[in-house]
Amino acid sequence: MAQTHRTRQDFVPTGAILIQPNDVNAEVYFYDDTKGRPCARVFKGRSIKPTLRCYYPSTESRDQNVERFLETVRNEQTAAQERNKERSKPHNLNVGDVLVSSWGWEQTNVDFYKVVTVVSKRTVEVVRIGTVEAEDEETKSLAMQGKKLPDDSTSTSRPSRHRVDMGNGEACITVGYRQFARPWNGKPVFYSSYA
């Protein structure tokens, strides 16, 4: 059986009045349901299904609720624009900088990466480098855990290109599924092993 793709118009009631606010990316439809109650459906951005779909005891109540909802959408969209603006700033990474990725589920794995080429203001090439055990009194007597330092004399991968995200003013690259690398602060990094 062929699957049909629905559009936004499939969710708009017949006879609904369209209101498009100028300062927010949303569409508002006002209508009365079969019981004569004032109703509203609001679609955010490019959504196909309505984000808000309610009936109200009065038109005043509907108008107030929709305006509150649109204010929330305005704030969300403004925050998203600011985040995107922050993320798209040029990175501050240089050739030779070391990045660290600490990740894992039942154990904490630590990988270090070294910047080998600055390709552009948004892209770098990195190689994964080796690690050495750090001398640390805290973790010395503990089993299956410790602290690691980078060993840039050994490379354990070929160079790979990564886009640099400058969220929160700190450079960050994605090196794997839910695995991110950020600039290393120069201190030994904790790790643990499972078996």
Secondary structure category: mainly beta
The amount of helix comes to 10-25%
Low-confidence stretches: none
The H/E string reads EEEEHEEEEEEEE
Give me the number of helical elements: 1
Give the overall pLDDT as a whole number.
90
**Biggest sheet: strands, sense, closure?**
8 strands, antiparallel
Strand content: 35-45%
Task: Give the CA-CA distance, first to last residue.
Answer: 50 Å
Radius of gyration: 26 Å
Coarse shape: elongated
Domain module count = 2
How many beta-strand runs? 12
Describe this structure in words.
The structure is a single chain. The chain has 195 residues and is mostly beta strands. It folds into 2 domains: 8-87, no CATH class; 98-192, no CATH class. Helix content is 15%, strand content 39%. The protein is built from 1 helix and 12 strands. It has one helix spanning 59-87, and strands at residues 17-19, 26-32, 38-44, 52-55, 98-103, 109-118, 123-133, 145-155, 160-163, 173-176, 179-183, 189-192. Strands 5, 6, 7, 8, 9, 10, 11 and 12 form an 8-stranded antiparallel sheet that branches. Strands 1-2-3-4 form a 4-stranded antiparallel sheet, with helices on one face. β10 and β11 (179-183) form a beta hairpin. It is elongated, with a radius of gyration of 26 Å. The model has no long low-confidence stretch (mean pLDDT 90).
